[in-house]
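Students often ask what a 'structure token' actually looks like in practice. Rather than answer in the abstract, let us consider Ubiquinone/menaquinone biosynthesis C-methylase UbiE, a protein of 265 residues. Its sequence is given first.
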Amino acid sequence: MLDLDAEVAAGQLAELTTRIADLAAGHPVRDVLDIGAGTGTGTFALLRRFPEASVTAIDTSDEMLRHLQDSATRHGLADRIRPLRADLDEAWPATGQADLVWASSSMHHMADPDRVLRDIHATLRPGGLLTVIEMEQMPRFLPDDLGFGRPGMEARCHVLLDRARAEHLPHIGSDWPSRLTAAGFTIRESREVTVGLQSPLPETAIRYAYATLGRIRSRLADDLSPEDRSTLDALLAKDSPNALHTRSDLQVLSTRAVWIATRPE
Ligand SMILES: C[S@@+](CC[C@H](N)C(=O)[O-])C[C@H]1O[C@@H](n2cnc3c(N)ncnc32)[C@H](O)[C@@H]1O
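Now compare that with the structural description of the same chain:
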């Protein structure tokens, strides 16, 4: 699902890394850290933008890092990536000084994000850049009225998901600008990155819709009303007359909040 998300948002990510390169102008970007790298969305976008860079991809999950390394090998980029298994809740790993740090959808996972931000600050060279990205609106795919089931099914799913996420991830929706400033950063830029695709969707976006809504279905399971559950099942069953890929009103809409900050010189 993360890889599909990367493909669907590729254009927006490329724009964002271009902006980071503009802000870094005059300073070489060679040593990059991707915090909570997952399957490498940021790692690969940054390697493309900064041809002299190598990326240390930090994640607590061996499975994510294995996936990232396999992709790197397939794309001939393995020699520019250092996968590093570390739980940043435990301690900051030995990384060496970084020119650029990227933390996408990962800071809200940290038990103590303020401590991690201070560690990032200490690791960045003066004048180096930190980009923090947090999902503001999780991806939506469906119109309110599907023509069957009770209208508003997807919105109800998101209410349940937001509730579950808020219970498990207390830092979601934090005031990141204040936290960045408190850790010693100066914010250079705040922006919103929106992915908005309308029908007819490319094949990747349809697969992304299946993957995301399928995950929602399994996450919410018994929390869904029987009616919403059967609506979602009908959308996800590929041979159903109501299956997602048969719809001409499928869309992708998501918004990320982005802060680009610097460690003052
Ligand atoms: C939602 S994923 C985001 C992945 C990627 N940055 C992206 O934008 O697609 C969050 C990642 O943070 C990692 N993560 C969560 N807590 C962590 C921790 N304490 N230390 C290191 N990585 C962590 C997870 O394993 C996961 O891969």
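One point worth highlighting: The domain at 2-262 is CATH 3.40.50.150 (Rossmann fold). Ask yourself how you might have guessed this from the sequence alone, and why that guess would often be unreliable.
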